Amino acid sequence: MEEAVDASAALDPKLAPLLLFGGHGDATFLYSVPKRALLAPMPTPTRVGDGGVDDMMRGHRWWTTAQGWLLMARRGSPCTFLWDPFTGRRVRLPPDHDGTVLTAEGSHRRRCLLSCCGPMDPTSCTVLVIDLADPELWYCRPGDNHWVKLHQQPYQYRNPAHRDAIIRFLRKFTAIDGKFYTELHTGNVGVLEFSPEVAEGN
């Protein structure tokens, strides 16, 4: 599950916390809050070279998590993994063979949540990817063989207002202690919890 640590693809911990800007246009920027400094901009992907942080960001599409890990999808490959930019640690995730989870065309519409503080324990960490424009989400655990898709059938949201409400609920998801929570239109809190068993087909 955990891949070898690549120290060259690691940031100085003294720079944390960092704000990560980009994903649209031609550059990615890191801003160090304690240093009050903008780190060198990283141009759009062109090549992968020495394996440093710049190359890691250039060679992958990425999504942030509240825990500091980045969900990474290698450009031109189905490979996905979690990456800690401060230690260089990687945690293998299932490949996105059909290109639907982290597809380049819809990548700006995705959000990633982790159900726990760190993804090292596959029995307690679920990686959740939410589509912010369609009522769909995907999940997996480190070590699984495939992503599992959950979605509303089109007949379940023929009314555009119902579909929009579902998308609003998905956008509000947050994670704590192994569960995902969202505020419902009734004022109640909805809870999404995945069983600890490995997903079917593994």
TrEMBL record:
<dbReference type="Pfam" id="PF03478">
    <property type="entry name" value="Beta-prop_KIB1-4"/>
</dbReference>
<protein>
    <recommendedName>
        <fullName>KIB1-4 beta-propeller domain-containing protein</fullName>
    </recommendedName>
</protein>
<feature type="domain" description="KIB1-4 beta-propeller">
    <location>
        <begin position="32"/>
        <end position="195"/>
    </location>
</feature>
<dbReference type="InterPro" id="IPR005174">
    <property type="entry name" value="KIB1-4_b-propeller"/>
</dbReference>
